[in-house]
Amino acid sequence: AQSVSQHNHHVILSEAASLELGCNYSYGGTVNLFWYVQYPGQHLQLLLKYFSGDPLVKGIKGFEAEFIKSKFSFNLRKPSVQWSDTAEYFCAALSRNQGGKLIFGQGTELSVKP
Amino acid sequence: GAVVSQHPSRVICKSGTSVKIECRSLDFQATTMFWYRQFPKQSLMLMATSNEGSKATYEQGVEKDKFLINHASLTLSTLTVTSAHPEDSSFYICSARDNLFSNQPQHFGDGTRLSIL
Hints:
The structure holds 2 protein chains of 2 kinds. Chain A is an all-beta fold.
């Protein structure tokens, strides 16, 4: 079955540390990839998306992600995290062959210590 | 920007009650809406795809008679949890895709926290 997996369940960092959250997908063919963030008590918000073109995608709030097709990966990065980045991060994939269904990874909880 | 409204945001009710959750696209039309369930500290699990004017498509393992979905208009889908039991307690989230931008990301509602006593 097609799936999305996130390697890190809980990441704890100090402010100004660099962040990389792993995401791998198992889809073949054309796939669109997304990173969503869920702040405590809030709804899901889109951080960035990859559809085609430049595999390095810039998102909001200083986040970026790199699509590496050969590794089936779409890791999320930020050079310097802030306390306000504390949230749950979800990687998701949308396969054109699946009627537009968005499949989510397990999520990674990020805690940034001030 | 596009907004999805979900109502109610929180429900607490007795076991055996049926609960209806509404999902509305406020400024766009959505032929397709999606219903997810999120357990604490876990990811969103797609329950079903709601299709305007036709039957919903349920994911494997989701009971269609338990989770009734009605998508009667291009801006409204409802999820009814019938004869709810404590194990149905969860966070339910809907999303909708703008008909005009089918390749763009889905827009998510704020979710409904359902607690069955």
